[in-house]
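Run: sequence + DAU -> complex structure.
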Amino acid sequence: MQRKLLVTGGAGFIGSHVVRRLVARYPSYQILNLDALTYAGNLENLRDVEASPNYQFVHADITDEAAMDRVFADHVADAVIHLAAESHVDRSILDPLSFIRTNVLGTAVLLNAARKHWAGRSDVLFYHVSTDEVYGSLGDIGFFTEDTPYDPRSPYSASKASSDHLVKAYHHTFGLPVVISNCSNNYGSHQFPEKLIPLMIHNIVQRKPLPVYGEGLNVRDWLWVEDHAAAIDIVFHKGRLGETYNIGGFNEWKNIDLVHLLCRIMDRKLQREAGDSASLITYVKDRAGHDRRYAIDASKIQCELGWSPSLQFEEGLERTVEWYLAHPEWVEHITSGSYADYYQRQYIHR
Ligand code: NAD
Ligand code: DAU
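>> structure
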């Protein structure tokens, strides 16, 4: 079957894994990667697929109405997988408006373009990729299900919750065919080293302090990024219209335990003495409004669509560390320029 598929944010962390998977698995699809190439977007992530006949890149901003209108008119896409977003919670605390602009306004602009160009069509799909953070924060027990009421608590999660609501509103009001997934924390190759795992790897290599927020007792549910890409593939092809699917790793870790595990792996890989990396751990001021615990009940996607995570966390973490150690040039390129400014501001902020 032939399809013209617009993937937004394909130059980012998760988007590049999704694009790589789709380009390889579906040679009869045309995959159009649309990305504004912000500090987090990097076409080096897709070097291995850029020459593929079923891949194309468009440099554009999803908040640009005229550009989105042109993209839909020129490429006649019949499906969208929407990943483009500002994605880092700490940045949303420093600069909430850029999150509202891209995540809320940008999603609305895309929805409008889809609605206009797909009027009267039922053979189309707008797939919105979202986060478990829309559900708020859990206590020591319980899980987020698809029925958990929305309770976003950071500018990032509030902007993602708004975008989810807009997608549902376009489905309900205009009959736009949509599907949404809400996923837990991803880790793996090509993640910008501002997020916990790649930041810690980067700092261990450079023997810099490892900043653990608060007491390090917050809990996250970690999923290997390629398992998320596989879930997105399945939801895209088999998800029921208008439905939400939660995606998670069944893999909860307290931050401090995860950082210690990473330190042990790094000591071994770098042939440093046991305990060397852990000596860099530095407790710093907590993130404002820091959500305590996220944990996903992924039984709906498991039972209905037959997806489950494929990789054990320890194995995934080893692979991730190996990738970062083998690609210092990637880290070097992506961390020059705007990253350096941000990194410095972060420390001033604390
Ligand atoms: P990322 O920050 O690595 O990548 C975002 C991409 O979007 C970049 O390539 C960037 O250039 C692009 N982009 C940003 N603003 C844009 C704009 N205005 N127009 C066009 N492109 C723009 O993010 P990620 O971690 O890969 O997350 C991708 C999506 O998945 C996001 O919607 C995020 O909310 C969601 N998500 C992420 C995680 C996670 O753990 N990283 C978990 C669940 C859901
Ligand atoms: O749950 C899904 C979300 O996971 C995604 O929607 C977001 O896009 C993604 O960034 C991620 O959000 P988190 O805030 O959970 O991820 P982050 O890697 O920033 O932080 C993970 C945990 O580690 C969190 O409890 C904060 C803590 N932390 C983070 C950093 C960067 C530290 O203790 N020190 C740090 O330096």
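>> summary
The chain has two domains: 4-186+221-247, 191-220+252-290+311-345. The chain has a mean pLDDT of 95.
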